[in-house]
Every structure is written in C-alpha cells, then in structure tokens.
Amino acid sequence: MEVLIVDDSADIREILKKIILAVKGIKKVSEASSFSEANVLLNESLPDAAIIDIQLPDGSGIEILKSIKASGKKIVVMMLSNYTSAPYRTKCKAEKADYFFDKTTEFNHITNVLESLSRNWQVKSLAQSQLNAT
User: Largest alpha-carbon pair distance within the chain?
Assistant: First the structure.
C-alpha cells in the first residue's frame, strides 16, 4: 500500500512518515511540500491514500482533494489541518473527503484509518494473487 503526504511542514511530514511506516502493509510513503509537488506526484503514481493539509504555500489542499475525486482515482483522502472550523469541514465533506482530522487533536486517528485500509488492501491483494494463479 502506498501513501502520499502533502504538507508544507517538514516536521509534520516526518512525524506522519514515522507513523505511517509503522503500519503493517505500508510499502511506500511519498511526500510533497506544496500544491505543485503534489500534482506532479499524483500524475506519476497512484497512491492508495493521501493525507493532505488544507493550507499550502502555492495553493489549497482542497483543490488537490477536488482534483483527486474528479479524476475517478480510487484514493482515500484524509484532510489533516489546523483549519478545522465548520466551513472547512463542510467544504471538504462536499468535495468528498473520506476523512477530516484536526492536526492538533486527532492525529492518532490516522493510524487507525491506515491500519484498516492496509488490512483491506492486503486481503484484496491476496485474493487477486489467488485469482491470477488459477
């Protein structure tokens, strides 16, 4: 399973990377510090999940969310931000974010979501391997 982190804070990306790599089944973690870097990475690969900050130096994480969902790519999107007031949550929900977490109080929820996604991903991979073997 592959995860993309989009956050302008190197410290946050490093903390997230450590958390993510501790989850069984995570094979790769990519990082982007800006809107433009995220778009390049999303055009080069197809992560299974993306953790996206709202406020980026050259654009909005909400625009990345919109782009992912409009593309039809099956990427689970978790918005992680300090901008947690109702208008931000409502906007992200309207744009079909799968999850919205407060960076200061809900960091631990990321692990729970990724563990669940990883288990599901491993089951699907095993089933696909068995189908291909027959």
Answer: 52
Phi, psi of 13 (to 5 degrees): -60, -40
Reply yes or no on whether the pLDDT at 130 is more than 70: no
Q: Is the per-residue pLDDT at 79 higher than 60?
A: yes
Q: Output Rg (C-alpha) for the chain, integer angstroms.
A: 15
Cα–Cα distance, 110 to 108 (Å, whole number)? 5
**Which pTM value belongs to this model?**
0.90
Residue found by looking up tokens 């089944």 in the block: 25
DSSP assignment of the chain, as one string? -EEEEE-S-HHHHHHHHHHHHTSTT--EEEEESSHHHHHHHHHH---SEEEE-SEETTEEHHHHHHHHHHHT---EEEEEES--SHHHHHHHHHTT-SEEEETTT-THHHHHHHHHHHHHHHHHHHHHHHHHH-
Q: What is the pLDDT of residue 15?
A: 95
* Distance in angstroms (rounded) separating the CA atoms of residues 121 and 82: 29
